[in-house]
Fold this protein.
Amino acid sequence: MSDALIEARQVCVTFGSGSRAVRAVRDVSLHINAGEAIGIVGESGSGKSTLARVLAGLQRPDQGEVLFGDESIYQRGRAYRGDKRRLVQMVFQDPYGSLNPRITALSTVAEAVKFHGEHSRSESHRLSLELLGQMGISERDAAKKPRQLSGGQRQRVSVARALSAHPEILIADEPTSAIDQSAQAQLLNLFQGLLGDGLSIALVSHDLGVIRYLTNRVYVMKDGAFVESGLTQEVFENPQHAYTKQLIASIPGRHLQGAGA
Amino acid sequence: MSTATVTESPSEVLVEIRDLVIGIQRTRADRLILVDSADFDIRRGEILGLVGESGSGKTMVCRSLIGTLKRRSATIFGGTIMFDGMDLAKIDERRWRSVRGNRIGYVPQSALTGPNPVMTIGGQLVEAVRCNRNRTERDARKRAMELLDLVHIRRPEVVYDQYPFQLSGGMRQRVMIAAALAQDPDIILADEPTTGLDVTVQAEIMKLLREIRTEFNMSVVLVSHDLALIDDVCDRLVVMHGGTCVEVGSVKEVAQNPKHPYTIALNRARIELATPGTQLITIRGNPPGVGEWPSGCRFSERCEFVQDDCRVGASPPLLEVESNHWSACIHAGELGAASE
């Protein structure tokens, strides 16, 4: 496991205390290797988003540690200090809520570009436009504010913002759940391309279709703990745990898979 | 072909939507058209899927069926919605009261914000039960319990006194379905009823909708952008694009033998059929924005089979290309060979 880029060891997160304490994540360990995509699936309330936030350095675990390189990211003070902050980026679930409604797509990305790379104003604008262009956002759309963009476009702006830091790992929390089918395909193609360029992706989703398509390893989460993990293909073809079986049986359109592929 | 129509003998048509035009009157001369010539039937006891991307007009069509367009400041400009001898496109608010909820039930999109947060589940159901019929309080309570039982809520007597925040998303959506069933409607409209719910919960809700259909011979209209879901649950489907219906037919027929390039493209973009690691096939461009519809076929700019005559004139109407299968593509006849 020496080639693991990021590794979580026996992470526990508890919200609240006493009798009302909720153990959101219980003793979870996972690792992400360079250039691979892993999936975390589970139902709402299973703790998958909390786990994503732990990996992104946004939620300090009560127990356990997260190693990035060989160093624990949660030491004193802020998580991911110095340059490491840049290397792990997150794309949030809600494309409506995670963009500032008052500034344009271009400014949103330019702000991040400027923050991470000490560029001049014109330089950061140029870089941002380039980045947005790669995400399929035209110069005309870049001048729009979030409310004028479609859900898929907004999500691509979020991805552009995350990529502006040139991260090594992208943590995406349900990036496709709020967008249309065709926009979803565009976003997934984008992720596929990024994987090809050597980025690692941790994809949190309850959409098993997306997980099956994009990831090579998957962790199945229930009530804060992993119930099954393994190569995505194997888990989908031969699920072991009862919960995983139930999940896979619930995928709509599954009966078509044999005929269509 | 003709024998097929006889044996199939389509069940009774409950709602007949013809040339429905919905839009917003912005100024006296300026109309923004949102839905243009929607054209389909809802038959008794069927589950009808309404698919399309955001902005395709599916929610607007849905709202016209429960008379709540005004709340979105939209108006019906033309066309008819015939239901039981009434034209729903023309009736006034007073007559709507006997239809909405009573004859046509509605399950809203968001299970999480749908129920009133400051009323108990029982209180809301009793309200739904008593709104149109004279029932005693006791009788209404009995009916509310029955409804909770009907949507498979365990321990209804406990849930009755609970507030929405104490229930999970799936349970809240069951309560919303129970409320929609309160008056024994002929039709239930479910507008993306499982958005934001887990796949396992989604599967249960769909099972429930199917049960309701079978048990009461009710019609269910399921609005969704998830083609896989529609395929699983529905009998027939209506595909919408750019504010108009582009294909109508049985789910089986449309899946195996799509007659509109948009449906073909949607089918190809389906992720559950894709091989992991390969490029997904996407549909070119974005759905045309409201008010930015191109002339001719509104899919022409994104269509891979587009020909010169697709880009002229008005948006093509639905034509019956095979029995009980309609397409709005003027080249529908040539598609079979091209899509192979």
Q: What stands out?
A: The interface with chain B takes residues 43-45, 150-153, 177, 180-186, 188-189, 192, 206-210, 212-214, 232-233, 246-247, 249-257, 260-261 of chain A (CB under 8 Å). The two ends of chain A are 34 Å apart (CA to CA).
